[in-house]
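Researcher: Go.
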Amino acid sequence: MSAAPATNSARVSAEAAGEVLEVALAGRWHITETRPGWTAVLAGRSPRWVRVSVDQVEKWDSSLLLFLFEMQQWCRMAGAHCDTEALPEKLTALLAQLSRSHETSVPFDRTENFITAVGRATMEVWQKGSDISHFVGECTLSLVKLAQQPHKFRWRDCLHEMQQCGAMALPIVSLISFLVGLTLAYTGALVLRQYGGDIYVADLVGLSMVREMGALMTAIVLAGRTGAAFSAHLGNMKANEEIDALESLGISPVDFLVAPRLLALGLMMPLLSLYANCLGIAGGMTVAAMVLEISPTAYWVEMLTIVDLSDVASGLIKAVTFGAIVGLAGCLRGLQAERSAAGVGRAATSAVVTAIVFIIVADAIYAVIFDILGI
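Model: Structure:
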């Protein structure tokens, strides 16, 4: 069916083959001119599969996007599958962005073949893994370049980031670490005092803080504070085309923006972890003195019988790894952010989620490795 008499105007032809409706778009689609409506194209039909092609479209603007969006929304309402594989990549990206900005309670299409859905999900996971590997490789090369040519590194930016992610994070790290040590001591006291082992609360708190909770809680705090800040800052720069300006000048964004942040976080994370260990032990000591009536001296002496340098070293190794994960997740999501305010917000959220997931996975891997090595 032809939607307009002029050969160069926007027109749509639709041919039904069983439950499949083949929709072909052609002509010039301009927002200032009349465009075909999806209801008129359907003409009362209720297909289960809609396949669209734009091979004969000469020029297009948002008018074509609005038509495709109308078609896509109808498919979701009717439970029909909307096949947009034939659309150009740029048009598909714009349509996806328009759909996200008009999110409704309409359910997503679930008529797609299960094997096809699994295949697409697998390819998406593979692509995301490839992007992460590529970014980690670029950061590694940038840090190698730093070691070879330290005079070309932006040390002023690195010192500024060290202040932001280190000194400025001390209040929240202090509060969280002290309360974690307090909670561990109270929980341990409930069990230990039943067996007359009150003094062993020092062993429980000291070992837990030094090996696990100090580095882990500091990393989670920095993931929500520093990782999100990295992502939002870089995402905003991308939205303002500042990163494109750097690339047009031949400056690598990884060297200029990412490397100083990674180095700053990698240096400050172990220090914050040691600080968190001290505050957590102090929290446990407070509970021991007030609830269990154990003197600080006895608490400290008992803790030293089980905590040694290998425990401290294992916590520092985790802290360095967690710091690298937080920095990489924040910078990666920031560079991948969409060029809009909503995209920057989603990038910050994704950075926090990604960092926390990889921190937990890395902590579990370290637990297995340290157990095998007997550390």
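Model: The longest strand covers residues 49-60.
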